[in-house]
Design brief:
The chain is of the alpha/beta class and about 220 residues long. Helices cover about 50% and strands about 15% of the residues. It contains nine helices and eight strands. The protein has helices at about 15-25, 35-45, 55-60, 90-100, 105-120, 130-135, 150-160, 170-185, 205-215, and strands at about 5-10, 30, 65-70, 75-80, 80-85, 125, 140-145, 195-200. The strands form two sheets. The protein has a five-stranded parallel sheet, sandwiched between helices. β3 and β4 form a beta hairpin. α7 (about 150-160) packs across α8. It starts with a strand and ends with a helix.
Length: about 220
């Protein structure tokens, strides 16, 4: 039986940073499920499909092949044969991913891929519904959160470090909207699994959060 760690939480809580660090320490494979929703979103954007057009989205889902591969330990997302890893980190793609991940056709396809990966491999998987839907029997479940203000500040600092000129209020508003949409959708909303441990990283360093999760994996 593979060892599975599920990390769920809202956008910007630090899930991927933490999960990558735990994966490196424990030799688990890190699976970033948000990247899969983003790859699908990129396909919809490129095809000029409206985020509101569920019928169209459901009808093209079968034309989309999303897979992941690992190079030097880092995850690459492949969309119909093209490595799109470098193209999916924009706000536009993130917002489209949030909007289109509400549809069951999209979720069914990606959840199956995620479950397949976790069956045979020790994984630490991050997302919104990992502990509740994708890996309900995960060995360790963490719900990682932080205040909106903290998450907006982290995103602001990240963009500034990249030489951009971000607007703090706009970032905070986007985060709030995304939280609302992710946690109020009908299918698999973002929510803490009953048996998940809540970790609020607002006043914790990365090392402290990583240490907390490593302890849970013992
Ligand atoms: O974690 P992220 O920001 O890369 O995710 C992008 C969007 O994908 C997120 O707003 C909601 C959706 N998502 C999801 O519905 N379920 C997951 N397991 C992961 C992401």
């Amino acid at each position: 039986m593979a060892f599975n760690v599920a990390i769920d939480g809202p956008a910007g809580a630090g899930k991927s940073t933490i999960a990558k660090a735990v994966a490196a320490k424990k030799g688990y494979v890190y699976v970033d499920t948000g990247a899969m929703y983003r790859a699908m979103a990129l396909y919809f954007l490129r095809s000029n499909i409206s985020k509101d057009d569920e019928a169209k989205i459901s009808s093209v889902v079968d034309d989309i092949v999303v897979s992941i591969k690992y190079e030097a330990g880092s995850q690459h997302v492949i969309l119909n044969g093209e490595d799109v890893t470098g193209l999916i980190r924009t706000e536009e793609v993130g917002n489209m991913a949030s909007a289109t991940s509400v549809y069951s056709a999209v979720r069914t396809k990606l959840v199956a891929l995620q479950q397949e990966l976790a069956k045979t491999t020790d994984v630490i998987m991050d997302g919104r519904d990992i502990g509740t839907v994708v890996l309900p029997n995960a060995n360790v479940k963490v719900f990682l959160t932080a205040s909106v203000e903290c998450r907006a500040k982290r995103r602001f600092d990240e963009l500034q470090a990249k030489g951009e000129n971000p607007d703090f209020d706009k970032i905070a508003k986007d985060i709030e909207e995304r939280d609302y949409r992710d946690s109020h959708r009908e299918i698999s909303p973002l929510k803490q699994a009953e048996d998940a441990i809540l970790v609020d990283s607002s006043n914790m360093t990365i090392d402290e959060v990583v240490g907390t999760i490593l302890d849970l994996c013992k």
